[in-house]
């Protein structure tokens, strides 16, 4: 449930999972963590199934002039900086997952980004700049405490893109990112003996993830997404004080 809610709410799933495991004395196998991410991936695919089917039809028909093909191109553009950052800084990001101090700082950064998002005009179409900027944000959000959805949506809004377009592109960008990260750790799945608890975790993560996406959509369209910055500031400050 923690994975499903915090994966899509702009409050950082990686940060919350690090804190939960540290404070509850848990050691979670990598394979189980991958299983939970597949649960939240299922959610976003189901939620945006219309856009994904449109992209598949455009690719099958080679309709390069359609809006669906353009959306596919935006996702590809956004994934380039994410992949480069992910591969180039893998060691650095992995070292941060052992530090609750890094989580606290990451939460504060997320809070600042959410607050700054209010300065966006919300009038521009997506264009080629938005996926590039959001892709960079997604790459940096590998750091625990920095929310993927919070940073991509906030920077998309900050450069003036419409709320509806930012919402759609942010979540579509997450699909190849989660798939890529899961494939990178596919060996852990094949070598691990996961029982019924893994399936239960996947189902609960998917269900709570769907609720989280609906909450983000409503908060964004009603211009209240910045309210999550209050939680990030409080949580980040609490982590630093406890540290």
What does the secondary structure layout of this molecule look like, with pairings?
Layout: H1 2-8, H2 13-24, H3 30-47, H4 49-61, H5 67-88, H6 90-96, H7 100-116, H8 129-140, H9 148-158, H10 163-184, H11 186-191, H12 196-221, H13 228-242
Tell me what the structure shows.
77% of the residues lie in helices and 0% in strands. The chain is mostly helical and 243 residues long. It has one domain.
Helix-strand category:
mainly alpha
Please report the distance between the alpha carbons of the first and last residues.
25 Å
Give the uncertain stretches in residue-range form.
none
Quickly count the domains.
1
- Proportion of β residues? under 5%
Mean pLDDT: 92
Could you give the order of the helices and strands? HHHHHHHHHHHHH
Can you give the helix content as a percent range?
over 70%
Could you describe the largest sheet, including whether it forms a barrel?
A: none
Number of strands: 0
Shape, per Cα inertia axes: globular
Put simply, the count of helices is 13
Question: Rounded to an integer, what's the Rg over CA atoms?
Answer: 17 Å
Pick out its properties.
single chain; 243 residues
Task: Describe this structure in a few short sentences.
77% of the residues lie in helices and 0% in strands. With 243 residues, it is an all-alpha fold.
